[in-house]
Specification:
Helices cover 50% and strands 18% of the residues. It is of the alpha+beta class. It folds into 5 domains: 80 residues, Alpha-Beta Plaits; 130 residues; 86 residues, Calcium-transporting ATPase, cytoplasmic transduction domain A, CATH 2.70.150.10; 137 residues, 3-Layer(aba) Sandwich (Rossmann fold); 117 residues, 3-Layer(aba) Sandwich (Calcium-transporting ATPase, cytoplasmic domain N).
Length: 736
């Protein structure tokens, strides 16, 4: 049992659809203080109980009363191994029901003088042996249904299990032995299919677990030994031969290779790795041998976190899932009431035969079974979440899977989203008698501990130039503007052109130099002290070649407005906008200005996405309808912050995400409309006395097959369209 504080997790046997979730909520909810304390993961058969004073034993007894069973949750696969009956019992009883039904039909046909005569009830009462086979077929088919139906009857909460049991009992009561046996058998087949479809989705998620090897080759004093990955300590040296999967996250200690990161990020091209580069568990080493120093334990690797978040995402139910659950809560009692009306009212009003209208009522009960409706939606959502994870798109819940389909506006941060986020120094312009090396040394000292892309560019350039960097003290950040620090007895500042203007010491010479840099679409980094401007450094970044194509694709998909938000200067921002095709530019923004800009977009367009790095843009991501962090493979904070995390830095994942969301939502809607439309048609036919049980059985079975397989189509690996564009841009010191 997983017990985190006041959270207790159970594995539920027998839960396959939203109706059973509703049953558990109704039975367990009052015991734990309300439904709000419960969350469910149908695919993995998991029930989480939060903040409850109820004992685990009491909860297990409540679950058992519903005809399902609860056991303590464990992540240990061996400890959770199912018995043969748990794995094969449903299929065995379904097979037994089918065999007994065939035997019953054959013996019935012999007694009646032909198959058609038996089906047409030429012999109203089958021989005892035949009746025994029919009853055996019915009992085997209803083996897993009857306990749940009995619970529903006792609690006066009709569900699909009760509908089927009533339909079978009614068929026997009016002498329709063959139809009764067929309904029981085919309902057992439908439940088996339902269980299989959930298992298929579960196996798709478990396939992610299989990405990471279970054994690692660890270099020790005695040589190279094989160890289970969960026994490898952080800091160990792991040997990864060519062509094998990397077992743990780490840093390359020695060697050079190209690593296929597609299992984690979805990137189609292998990424070059050498000493000092980060690698991830589950990715595939190329042609070169690598020695990797592990940085995380097996339970905390990037792929382990992805798997955990995908599983947790299933508890955050999509709007369509919530609708189906609410609908099923009222639908089944209404259908039962309608069946009673059809059985009773026409004979009373028209004086017709009671058995004929009871037969039509049974047709309604059979076709009313909400199997297809309640299972297809969660299966579709889980399939959509799993496929997205395969493509390096981590979606934290069904609610966020459906959201991109409705995007009307998308706000994009510039640096690291539209651009590569790896700017380089283009020129150093010293002023007021300073030299290039002096200016670089001051700038590098002020930015020594900063992780901003511009700071990294300046530090790298100073290192390449061989400049001796002095020590700075009393460093202070100026959010969205720059920083200040003391070097010796003098206090210096570094920041944007705007910071230089605010200081009131901008000279005509400094203004002209800054203007030339901005005209060239470069970012301006100004350095000065309280007396004068020491000089300027220009830095530029390059636009991702695929940015323009990605933005065009989003517009083709129906996104009305694409806005770029940046702290960079307006000239640089406009240059990027021209190259990428964004509709609107908001430049020279502080972090709080980005939040305001996103809020303004949200007022104009109901569904707004914000795309950024997930760390610096966290407030803006939170302000949007959906926050999307890009390039999150090495950033745990980004995965935690955003609603959706693009594990690679490929911007073309954005249009893929929108298209995938629309495809998923389309499949869900198709299934709901088809299932309800078919049921409505048969209810009308039954009301007119034109439907038969066989027609209802065939239609319900066919509907279940179609909608389940339609939902599972989302597990197919659809590809990303890599369209490339070209361009260049730069980045300002105050952008985030």
């Amino acid at each position: 049992m997983s017990n985190d504080g006041t959270t207790v997790i159970f594995r539920i046997r027998g839960i396959d659809c939203a109706e059973e979730v509703a049953t558990l909520k109704a039975e367990v909810g009052p015991l734990v203080g309300g439904e709000q304390h419960l969350s469910f993961d149908i695919v993995n058969g998991r029930m989480r109980v939060n903040d409850s004073q109820a004992t685990p034993e009491a909860i297990q007894r409540a679950v058992a009363a519903t005809g399902m069973s609860a056991a303590p949750w464990t992540d240990d696969a061996e400890a959770d191994e199912q018995s043969c009956w748990q794995r094969r019992g449903r299929a065995a009883m379904c097979l037994a029901s089918g065999v007994l039904l065939v035997v019953a039909v054959l013996t019935h046909a012999l007694a009646a003088g032909g198959l058609l005569a038996a089906i047409a009830r030429k012999v109203l009462r089958p021989p005892p042996w035949t009746m025994a086979c029919y009853l055996g077929a019915i009992a085997a088919g209803a083996w897993f249904v009857a306990p749940k139906a009995w619970f529903a009857a006792r609690r006066l909460r009709p569900d699909m299990n009760l509908l089927m049991v009533i339909a079978v009992a009614g068929a026997i009561a009016i002498g329709e032995w063959f139809e009764g046996g067929a309904v029981s058998f085919l309902f057992a087949v439908a439940l088996l299919l339902e269980s299989w479809s959930v298992g298929r989705a579960r196996r798709a998620i478990k396939a992610l677990v299989g990405l990471s090897p279970q054994v690692a080759r660890v270099r020790t004093d005695e040589g190279t030994v094989e160890m289970q990955v969960d026994e490898v300590s952080v800091g160990s040296l792991v040997v990864v031969p060519p062509g094998e999967r990397i077992p743990l996250d780490g840093m390359v200690q020695s060697g050079r290779s190209a690593v296929d990161q597609a299992p984690i990020t979805g990137e189609s091209v292998p990424v070059s790795k050498q000493e000092g580069d980060e690698v991830f568990a589950g990715t595939v080493n190329g042609v070169g041998a690598l020695q990797v120093r592990t940085t995380r334990p097996a339970a905390d690797t990037q792929v382990a976190r992805i798997i955990k978040l995908v599983e947790e995402a299933q508890t955050r139910r999509a709007p369509s899932e919530q609708w189906v659950e609410r609908f099923a809560r009222y639908y089944t009692p209404v259908m039962l009431a309608l069946a009673v009306i059809i059985a009773v009212v026409p004979p009373l009003i028209q004086g017709g035969r009671w058995t004929a209208w009871l037969y039509q009522a049974l047709v309604v009960l059979v076709i009313a079974c909400p199997c297809a409706l309640v299972i297809s939606t969660p299966v579709s959502i889980v399939a959509g979440l799993t496929t997205a994870a395969r493509h390096g798109v981590l979606i934290k819940g069904g609610v966020h899977l459906e959201a991109p389909a409705r995007f009307q506006a998308v706000a994009l941060d510039k640096t690291g989203t539209l651009t590569h986020g790896a700017p380089a120094v283009q020129s150093v312009v010293p002023l007021d008698d300073h030299t290039d090396d002096e200016l670089l040394a001051i700038a590098a000292a002020l930015e020594a501990h900063s992780t901003h892309p511009l700071a990294r560019a300046i530090n790298a350039h100073a290192k390449e130039a061989g400049v001796e960097v002095p020590a700075a003290s009393d460093s202070q950040m100026l959010p969205g503007k720059g920083a200040t620090a003391a070097i010796g007895e003098t206090r210096f500042w570094i920041g944007s052109h705007r910071l230089m203007e605010e200081r009131g010491i901008e000279t005509p010479e400094a203004r002209e130099a800054a203007r030339r840099m901005e005209d060239a679409a470069h970012s301006v980094v100004a350095i000065g002290n309280d007396r004068h401007v020491c000089g300027l450094i220009s830095v530029s970044d390059t636009i991702r070649t695929e940015s323009a194509a990605a933005i065009a694709a989003m517009k083709t998909l129906g996104v009305r407005k694409v806005v770029m938000l940046t702290g960079d200067n307006n000239e640089t921002a406009q240059a990027v906008a021209t190259a990428t095709g964004v509709d609107q530019v908001r430049a020279e923004l502080l972090p709080e200005d980005k939040v305001s800009a996103v809020a303004e977009l949200a007022r104009e367009h109901q569904h707004v996405a914000m795309v950024g790095d997930g760390v610096n843009d966290a407030p803006a991501l939170a302000a949007a309808s959906t926050g999307i962090a890009m390039g999150s493979v090495g950033t745990a904070a980004a995965v935690e912050t955003a609603d959706i995390a693009l594990m690679s830095d490929e911007i073309e994942r954005l249009p893929w995400l929108i298209a995938h969301s629309r495809r998923t939502l389309s499949v869900v809607k198709q299934n709901i409309v088809f299932a309800l439309g078919l049921k409505l048609a048969f209810i009308v036919l039954a009301t007119l006395g034109m439907a038969t049980l066989w027609m209802a059985i065939a239609a319900d079975m066919g509907a279940s097959l179609l909608v389940i397989f339609n939902g599972l189509r989302l597990l197919e690996r659809n590809t990303v369209d890599h369209k490339k564009g070209r361009g260049a841009c730069s980045h300002g010191p105050n952008s985030a």
